# Entry
Amino acid sequence: MKLNLKVWRQRSNNDKGAFATYQVEANEHMSFLEMLDVLNEQLIAKKETPVAFEHDCREGICGACSMVINGRPHGPQQGTTTCQLHMRAFEDGDTIFIEPFRARAFPVVKDLVVDRSGFDRIIQSGGFVSVNTGQAQDGNAIPIEKDLAGEAFDAATCIGCGACVAACPNGAAMLFTSAKVTHLGLLPQGKVEHSKRVLSMVKAMDEEGFGMCSNVGACSVECPKEISLENIARMNRDYIGASLASDKTV
Amino acid sequence: MKLNSNIPEGPLADKWTNYRGKMNLVAPNNKRRIDIIVVGTGLAGASAAATLAELGYNVSAFTFHDSPRRAHSIAAQGGINAAKNYQNDGDSVYRLFYDTIKGGDYRSREANVHRLAEASRSIIDQCVAQGVPFAREYGGLLANRSFGGVQVSRTFYARGQTGQQLLLGAYQALSRQIATGNVKMYNRHEMLDLVMVDGKARGIIARNLLTGKLERHAAHCVVLATGGYGNVFYLSTNAMGSNVTAGWRAVKRGALMANPCYTQIHPTCIPVSGEYQSKLTLMSESLRNDGRVWVPKNMDDVMAIREGRKTGNDIPEEDRDYYLERRYPAFGNLVPRDVASRAAKTACDEGRGVNQTGLAVFLDFAAAIERYGKAEAHTQGLHNPDKGTITRLGEEVVKAKYGNLFQMYEKITGENPYKLPMKIYPAVHYTMGGLWVDYNLETNVPGLFCLGEANFSDHGANRLGASALMQGLADGYFVIPYTIGQFLSKEIRTPKISSDLPEFEAAENATKERVEKLINIKGNQSVESFHRRLGKIMWEYCGMSRNAEGLKKGRQMIRELRAEFWRDVFVPGTADEFNPELEKACRVADFLELGEVMMVDALDRNESCGGHFREEYRSEEGEAARNDADYTYVAAWEWNDEQPILHKEELVFENVELKTRSYK
# Structure
């Protein structure tokens, strides 16, 4: 299949970016990233600079791949990361627009690579259980209801890719943050510091320059792990609860 | 060089406890003054960095990723072993120890493996306390499943994403220490050299991948937790960025590479589909709990399947060869990985492969779907359910167990594995070899430690499923925090190491020179093309089966390829910018040297054991034939451009009798 690619090229955050047009020959068994590998081999053969994009595991779990394809983070397929998207989702002769995740809190590093370290700092603000190595009791000491563990797991499957932020018109990180708040808050081990956690993580989220939530819901639609909007509702409720009912300040 | 494993005296089961009790300690006031560098922040690195920081050391941690959460530990699917015996099925620390020693084909250290089995129990406790959402039973207690090479259920799991959940646990523990300032985190930094001062590891040269700037980082000791080197084969289940560079730079500074030829070829991966392919995807071993592996008995059926005239479903039961169940009735589809992989190769070598390339076998869930469907119907009180109902119910059960794997398979292949049997083929997955370390996980270079997949210590010649996560976390949470004190207790009077020392300047200059050399070759071939060619040589001559003639040829081919690389590689861009091609070039340059040592090691080992199968050494039934009289040793290689130098550590078995490994 012959494809027309419109790829965002930008040397660095301080440079102005623009779309460049490339033709590439692909086949339907290729993953989207393998198609870009082919493009880069072409560019290198012409001694041009290859397109920088992030990728690592290529199994849909590391969260590194991050581009916006035809206006949608990770492309057209529901519940699929860019690396798991295959060219059979496209037609011969298609024009495909490829852009970086765009958000104020995700500055462009180069081409399709952005800086998502804001996510790390949100986790550092409280996305953990404060337990040192060696302090744990027996793993079976506290039974956890199967469905509850499952619900916590569903939230915990977030891969930290940032598609939610890229999809959101406000560039909000509510889905990401609320997934972690939910994962830990539902489990007895994480309950102890839940109030403090929700307050500090929301604060960190604001400080990083992520936007506010206006219940658009695009985050959940574009999430490759299909993290539910319910998490945001839960976080909002818990945030209000923690702000009103506790004298904790962060 | 005399390799001293420093295994403590005393009975096996008491060694670790007694040793730990008498170990030298570093007092809290001194810990504050000691700097530790941890390179790599996957399971082993993140857990080590977090724990060392909790203890009060000053830790600097480095990853080439944009965040520690991206480390390839995240992709581990199936689970983590622990000798909890929650299932009351006869498990114990000794049994986990024994299974691991036997699974490793009697090529690992007894004392290390026993310690691993002991630590396994604490790992589960620790992870539960961190909020890792393990699978649970209806009663709320932890669930288990079974993995290859064992006859108990001791594998803890979080659906098919166990590695992800464990890594996030370690990442969160690390994040907590970053927030306190006890860990200084360097994302997007790649170690390009080890700095030695007076014979001790005292720092690293790291390249800031965003700016290209080379940075000097000094510390009292250096811990490498940089993962495996399976990407030397180009196509593997490793992430694209996984590399050997940190470890290899240490080898160039005098560390020894142990058993590099021990490569694990995982039996259940999605087969190669084309030349453009960049990586292979694993289908978790847990699938072999319920999937049955087979190929057709008749060549007519094989051809019909390849040409698309028939599917696996069209082949009647009596015309199928469930070769694992036939050859290994005791373990059946759950034989260890090396055995399952070789059996798949044998079936395909006989011409019975079931895809167009002839390199695939079936992994079939129809029987499991029917079995689960019937059980579920019974539970729901349905009597005489029709076939459709049974299938529907059975598919639901299978979906609950392996849903994400089935989904991944369908995304990649475009085939529905609930309806058609999966096609699978072995692929490079894990490297048992790695830097030589003693019982303290210290390499032969004083002050240089190595953890997780990057070291060689626990899996012998073959790793059992769900043991990689166990080892990474055991090393990071429960071993290195103690053993590092053996070295550091002698360093409490050592002042802060200065990165202005001439050794740092020399190492930085050497690194700068090497990087610039790569940029300035300005040849005509891409880094990728060299990597792909290297991978083909490795797979052909040092892959699933090896022979002396091929290994000699392969070695020669690698040497030629290496020379060509340094003559004709093209690296676009400059050294002073974000340049992923340059990063790749540095890594491939190191793979080109490692590959040769792997060939040399495989040629030296005139026996077949675990993942190392030499065609010349096999039993009458075609199984691997070990040679315990001559090869019960760890082969630790010192780098030498002309001829790597072999140092041997004899393996002493005081508790386990060396037997022919049988899964029949």
Remarks:
- Chain B touches chain A through 81 residues (CB under 8 Å).
- Chain B has three domains: 12-17+39-262+432-488, 270-428, 511-632.
- Residues 387-413 of chain B form the longest helix (27 residues).
